[in-house]
Amino acid sequence: MTTQAPITAASDFRSIDAQTGEPFGEPFAVHGPADVAAACAAAEAAFDPYRSLPRERRAAFLDRIAEEILALGDALIEAAMRESGLPRARLEGERGRTMGQLKLFAEVVRRGAYLGVRVDPALPERQPLPRQDIRLRRIPLGPVAVFGASNFPLAFSTAGGDTASALAAGCPVVVKGHPAHPLTGALVASAIAKAAAATDMPDGVFAHLVGPGTALGTALVEDPRIAAVGFTGSRGGGLALLRLAQARPEPIPVYAEMSSINPVVLLPEALKARGTALGQAFVQSLTMGAGQFCTNPGLVLAIEGEGLDAFIEAAKGAILESRATTMLTGGIHAAYEQGVEALASHGDVETVARGQLGEGVTCGVAALFATSVEAFLKDERLGHEVFGASSLLVRCRDEEDLHRVLRAAEGQLTATLQMDAGDTEIAARLVPILERKAGRILANGWPTGVEVTHAMVHGGPYPATSDGRTTSVGTLAIDRFLRPVSYQNLAEPLLPEELRDGAAGSVPRLVDGQPG
Amino acid sequence: MTTQAPITAASDFRSIDAQTGEPFGEPFAVHGPADVAAACAAAEAAFDPYRSLPRERRAAFLDRIAEEILALGDALIEAAMRESGLPRARLEGERGRTMGQLKLFAEVVRRGAYLGVRVDPALPERQPLPRQDIRLRRIPLGPVAVFGASNFPLAFSTAGGDTASALAAGCPVVVKGHPAHPLTGALVASAIAKAAAATDMPDGVFAHLVGPGTALGTALVEDPRIAAVGFTGSRGGGLALLRLAQARPEPIPVYAEMSSINPVVLLPEALKARGTALGQAFVQSLTMGAGQFCTNPGLVLAIEGEGLDAFIEAAKGAILESRATTMLTGGIHAAYEQGVEALASHGDVETVARGQLGEGVTCGVAALFATSVEAFLKDERLGHEVFGASSLLVRCRDEEDLHRVLRAAEGQLTATLQMDAGDTEIAARLVPILERKAGRILANGWPTGVEVTHAMVHGGPYPATSDGRTTSVGTLAIDRFLRPVSYQNLAEPLLPEELRDGAAGSVPRLVDGQPG
Fold it and tell me: Which parts form a coiled-coil structure per UniProt (chains A, B) (predicted)?
């Protein structure tokens, strides 16, 4: 059984219907500091038993979570639709992604390559001194605090990528559920609890704490038993957690995925050949899911000319036709309106087009703005994220302008090149600049799709994330929750199983630096 | 040619003879903020050309540095002997280690596994959506600031492990030379400059800045072009750099190796069988190099009984016979004396033995103290490092006492078990505790030898280091200066060479998560 921290108080904390802004359903119990302490104590107690389980047992737990999520049936999809305002097809797809992610990490655990096993055998005859036997594996950091995101109530929330990768690494998880979808979170947490019971996991391997406000999250990050933090959300929220973690007597890593405007560079030949098509495709990427993606294309760079005119014309037409859809929460909608208003009223910014109003009270009306290179470089606020379907086009005069803007840009999750074969030379000069600014570089696609795979990096230099050495999507995400330990001259019975001579072949290992 | 930052001022900053405390040789030019800016600008300009070189070119540079260090001949050994007070044999061995480390990283660069190449081929037929081609490699972070250590004037200083691993990763390096060995540092820097010229490296790939005081280091860490910091030294120094790095507009990683007391646990059967031999071997490890090792055994835990009495008797005898040797600097000697005095005058600490005086003005007299579990747990200062040949024995009553002390201990570089076969059960219960406290666990050896190899971890949880997810010794140290980047749907000419189809087989890669 997993620990559900005891409930300290009844409350008026309820689900909000994203469409109407009205509360619905029963109030949720709100967790307080005593619940945080209880959940963290249980997670700490679970850590050694959980990390010591045979890998197959942990893999089976992850697989079972995926199955229990599916077994929640349509109740889960309906709860998520009502709380997030996102449409059914999107949430069904997101459920599939969430399950796929858990099953992929189960495979990673089975394979065991993530342990990074290295063996340097003893060299008893070495001169002037013999070398002792030294073996290395990576071990999990300890209990992990996960802060779910509002914009992916399934794939980046209670049983999302951070939870899956931390559990895979061998870390118990304490989730601070996102207050924008408490019902969805509670359903998913119940699925994890069922899976833990069914696969006989140690008590405390998972806990789900909920409540409005920031006190709960603060107490969680400050708890001395928490060894790392995963977060997806705003820059303000991420930096606040980072500061708390750094100020602890024992500082801990924070993996905060915070903000990105995901520059898209339209290169001249591509613009010439298909400016209109690019304008239409761009708006489709911009407005998908009310623009509520970390990888939304919020910045467009292009050199002025006929091709750009065609792009703008097509994008303008598509924006004008776009109908606003419901945003995740009233707060996100208000922040979006404020961000858009700041751009609209900025002296150096031109409003290219606004979309049509929608039907709900929190519909985000799409927006496209344009500005000059000088204005963009002068006012750093123009480079800040406006979370939602808003984008800013920076009109460049030449390639040098592209370089200036990109060199001045903050760290990003993604950077995209729209290019034709004739753009290869200019693109080759841009790639080294983009590599230093982003975690993922795309050609002729749009950044809003993020594959869950082995080669994916969903990360990037600060302030896109708080730690650009990592990714929060894809199998490499497990690295965030591991650290290496060397074992020198330990007799077989004391060695971890994967390091014993008998385990050769069962997990990938480097022997004296060579696969074997 | 490498950049030697221009010299801004003559000074009275000179080498100090460790034995006599007297200055010798010509004064060194002291670098200031303008030199820092110039070196960082040159390093930034060198970054793209340097990281883009074929791997073989960078490997040849590392090999050549090793050769140029050897070509400095006896002048290097004599300078280091005089500045550090360390004996010839030790420094000749350390030179070999420094060269071996550079050559090992050259091999790592040639092999290319450090790039972590992953390829997920396109799946054009996938339903409901095709998958695009996604490829991943790791790229270097950017220019790295290296702060050399005083206790390894060769292997952890100007061309030491941090420099070697950063250059191997593809990062230009700006060294803040340790003020305790400016002549040694200048000689090694000249060897690196020669190697850079001989192998035609870009200007600015390496710079060496020197001066007393902290202003130089502060300016270096605050320079916006510096992307990461490597440091070996005191806890105070490491934490100061960490705070500077975190307060930058763009925070950067700091790899500070700071302090450790390296607990040694003497298990009952081993004590019974060979208490006397253990006591003698312990003092040998404790007093080697005047105890000036990060991995010096500064804490001994054992359960009281006959075996422990024999250990103490033998250790006492060996300490009484030990003759003090010159410490690295007057400052280090003064801090040692202060630390030892604090223990000697502590109400709950008994002085077991002090060694004999030595001949120089800064000789560190060995010291062994003893205390109770209660006293150790009550006063956290008893767990702080005294850098030098001082150790504290904590008398335990039972296994539970061992657990209590170890659970309360701070993060460590190493933890050692002295054990016989009959101690296996108690050792098996200790290993999971030690794994959470240390980067390396040893059985029946002493922590003071640190192999430079693939499976070595010289790192550990805070405050042993500022980032327990890494190591500063061994080939895994290169990971500190890399971050992953994904390339999605990029045409061959834009892909980095190692990611192209034609490069399959030239570097290890994972294809869809499998070696291939």
Answer: none
- Residues A217, A152 within the same domain: yes
Q: What is the DSSP letter of B133?
A: P
Residues B240 and B326 in one domain: no
Predicted pLDDT at A7: 45
- The angle at the Cα of B331, spanning B295 to B223, to the nearest 5 degrees, equals 80
Residues of B whose CB is below 8 A from A453: 120, 131, 134
Contact B469 A456 (CB under 8 A): no
Q: Do B118 and B105 share a domain, yes or no?
A: yes
CA distance A310 to A316: 10
Average pLDDT over residues B162-171: 98
Question: Does residue A512 lie within any of the structural domains?
Answer: no
Given a cut of 50, is residue B7 above it in pLDDT? no
Contacts of B339 (CB under 8 A, 6+ apart): B384, B386, B387, B388, B390
Closest by Cα among B60, B163, B72, B50 to B103: B60
Please report the pLDDT score of residue A10 as a whole number.
54
Chain A partners within 8 Å of B453 (Cβ): 120, 131, 134
Q: How would you classify residue A89: left for phi > 0, otherwise alpha for psi between -120 and 50, otherwise beta?
A: alpha
- Given a cut of 50, the residues of chain A with pLDDT beneath it are 1-9
What mean pLDDT is predicted for residues B465-471? 97
| Residue A257 a catalytic site member | yes
Nearest to A139 among B52, B421, B435 (CB): B435
Residue of chain A whose Cα is closest to the Cα of B51: A432
Q: Are residues B175 and B267 in the same domain?
A: no
Chain B nearest-CA distance from A463, in A, is 8
pLDDT score for A3? 41
Min distance B322 CA to chain A CA atoms (Å): 23
Give dist(CA A249, CA A224) in Å, integer. Answer: 8
Residue A13 within any structural domain of the chain: no
**C-alpha–C-alpha distance, residues A394 and A381, integer Å:** 14
Residue B425: which domain range?
Answer: 263-443
| DSSP secondary structure code for residue B411 in this structure | P
Contacts 24+ apart (CB under 8 A), A125-129: A129/B449
Strand order in the sheet with B144-147: B206-209, B173-176, B144-147, B228-232, B254-257
Please state the domain count of chain B.
2
What's the average model confidence in pLDDT over B214-240? 97
Asked whether the beta carbons of residue B424 and residue A139 sit closer than 8 angstroms, the reply is: no
Residues A407 and A427 in one domain: yes
A489 and A473 in a common domain: yes
Please tell me whether residues B434 and B475 are part of one structural domain: no
CATH number (domain holding residue B427): 3.40.309.10
Phi and psi torsions of B487, nearest 5° = -120, 115
Domain membership flag for residue A516: no
Q: Is pLDDT above 90 for B516?
A: no
pLDDT digits (tens, 9 = 90+) for B171-205: 999 999 999 999 999 999 999 999 999 999 999 99
The ipTM is 0.96
Active site residue A410: no
What residues in A contact B431, CB-CB < 8 Å?
Answer: 490, 494
CB atoms A485 and B455 under 8 Å? no
